[in-house]
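so my prof wants the structure for this chain in the tokens format not the other one, which i didnt know existed until like an hour ago. anyway here's the sequence
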Amino acid sequence: MPVVNEDHGRLIRLDALYDDPYPTYFELRGRPVAYVPEAGRYLVARHADVMYVEQHPEIFSSAEEDSLITRVMGSTLLRKDGCPHMRERKAAEPALRPRVVRNHWKPVFQQISDELIDGFADRGEADLFVDYAGPMAALSLAAMLGFRGVSADDMQRWSQTMMDGIGNYADDPGVWERAERSAAEVGAAVDETMERVREAPDESIVSAMLRGEDPIDVETVKSNVRVIIGGGINEPRDAVLTAIYGLLDNPDQLAEVRADEKLCAAAFEEAVRWVSPIGMYPRQTTRETELGGTLLPKGARLGVLIGSANRDEAVFEDPDRFDIRRGSRPHIGFGGGPHYCLGTWAARAQVGEVSLPNLIRRLPNLRPVGGTETRWGGWVFRGPLNLAVRWDV
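here's what i got, hopefully its the right format
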């Protein structure tokens, strides 16, 4: 018999989730779906329940009322279902298809990676967050969007402040101000890009959105570019840092990757499972329904915990361990339903085929800096906040 669950989540604090969500996730997976007052949401932690949500968008809608994403970024495909979602998704798809990624974007990624590593290779020491992973993700995405004259610093600032905004459940006014300023600056960059690609169409995402069979309006292009800048920077950045961290922490696996560069693809997939860069996304019920033994009212707000589902011991053996030889059991770091990540193929190429192998290949005897702790943060979005390494020069 389902119950309305109001008790299990009362002791859960968002600051504790930011520091280390996994002990809480373990507890949540042993209970029904729990309401967490501090987040104003029912948190969905089990893999089976997350997959049920993914497979039933007619019950668990992405079109959440008063969505923080909509407040910061405008009307986007992430907060639409059915035909409106597919229309906007199809507008961007031509720039991100596997063939285009392989033939056009992968050489661009390689050039950016080489230039970044050229800039610090002789130093023998770096913080890979600052010197490599952040700029690599930012410059790669700027190229894919069709931006020119936009710096890695600008892209990273836009991404971080807008992501802070859509995770601003504490309603901090300063966070809103920074997010809204960045959203306006992104809109201006899109205006400049659209003016150019209307005259000279190219392989970029903005160009694809404007010239498709069913092109979308200018404001919708801007809103979706804002969303792409959010996930399109933090996911590849955090995935490559997590993969490097996992390999450095497991020298036997690092040795395997050095001996067989193709294993970098497996390292990327395991990194996205082990610490999912996009750890939570929201949904809202369209009617009263049962989920995980909990009776949810119509209009209930959910926090769907990808970061928990990808460590569910009912699905993954020894889930807290980083293991590139884990096997074929698929993670859901890119989602699993109609909103499956549009940039999946680009992320796999950028990280698993370029960023990660190039780093290991070009920095001999890559190793952590002794005595320097790698800090982690986040639960809505999660990843390393620094990664100090050395190598032989």
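also thought this was worth mentioning. The chain has one domain: 14-390.
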